[in-house]
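Chain and conformation:
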Amino acid sequence: MDLMRKKSVDDILKNQSPLKRTLRTWDLVFLGIGAIIGTGIFVLTGKGALTAGPGLSLSFLIAAICCGFAGLCYAEFASIAPVSGSAYTYSYIAFGEMIAFIIGWDLMLEYALGAATVSVGWSGYFNSLLESIGIHIPTVLTAAAGTTPGVHTIFNLPAFCIVLLITAIISIGINSTKHVNDTMVFIKLAVIVLFIVCTVWFIKPANWHPFAPFGAYTFHHGTAMGIIPAASIVFFSFIGFDAVSSSSEETINPSKTIPRGILISLAVSTVLYIIMTLIMTGVVKYTAFANYLNEPILAVLHHTGQGWLAALVSVGAILGMTTVILVDLYGQSRISYSMARDGLLPKFFGDVNEKYQTPFKGTWFFGILTAFAGGFINLNILSDLVNIGTLSAFVLVSAGILVLRKTQPDLHRGFRVPGAPFTPIIAMVFCFVLIGGLNWQTWLRFLIWLALGLAVYFGYSHRNSQLHTNK
């Protein structure tokens, strides 16, 4: 049983894709920013500030450096094999089929569960906006059962509906997805810039002292605190930038535009995250975010007496998280499409609609599952699963660069990771540090997910793989 059979770059590039190439560099930059800027600024800064204090800005920087080094590795792979599939395809080239399947399985966890998790945060801001204009959704339809102790809830209707709406947009073509994403990203960036301009004047440097009240890593009342644990939390903010590499088959000149899209979007997002966290922890004492855990920006607005900005910020938050959901669902559909094309998932997921030129059926299948997950499941304890799955993919992509530099040094590379082999090694070290900040329950759930994946691989994928059937 050949578990490590590999696909060659030549064989991958021979595939004639039915997907339409329309994306350019700035479309990919906006796609990356759409994936990154959202939950991190509008939700996670509250929990992150309580974990790291004003040092949260360093936590974002650590997470960004991890993603930046990994992003360089993604960029080289994208220039070698500019096709859909992201880390899944790259692992197929470097390590072989079983590892590739496991990474594809992890990416489905990252994108689908990530989109469901963000949809819950989206629902919170959407409900707040409706409340501000006098519209009230019944409490039982605002969250999954058991989400809030003492509050009777059954189903998160807004989360369910937004996922279905975005699924519809993605399913009818990349052009509609691109235009919707670009518009929403532009508006949310404008809201963020407005927030910065209006609040920077209220900074009190005394609020930054002590800058790192819990140090780099410590235990406080049995909970991991400090800059490193906070980096493990806010890493979720950067998840999704790798979806840019999933768009390779729909990108014009992908060997150049994919690396540019990944690196520019990461750079812009990191700068904005650091500026925002410094302003927020400078305007109010970090301990104040305990009362605004899910809507931390509102703490700043109330403190500065700029209530008039609250509605605009809510709109920015809604749009910000909408684009994150959009990019996650887009990445999910392209990963399952690539795996189905290789025979590792049923052909249903790789069926491209002639009218829309998208994997229509697979997009709707995972969109509906994600909508129900956001509507019915309490995702608070599962979000770390997204982090560990993504970090595992980053480790393998980084290791794959080292393997291919050794085994296939003559491959055409439109982009080369600078500083190799040190850069990929540094990327892996950062990933392992962030994985170390996650709790043992997350590891256990991740191992269960991997066990389910191996059951699917040995039960279906191995014998239906194109590499097996084409022998």
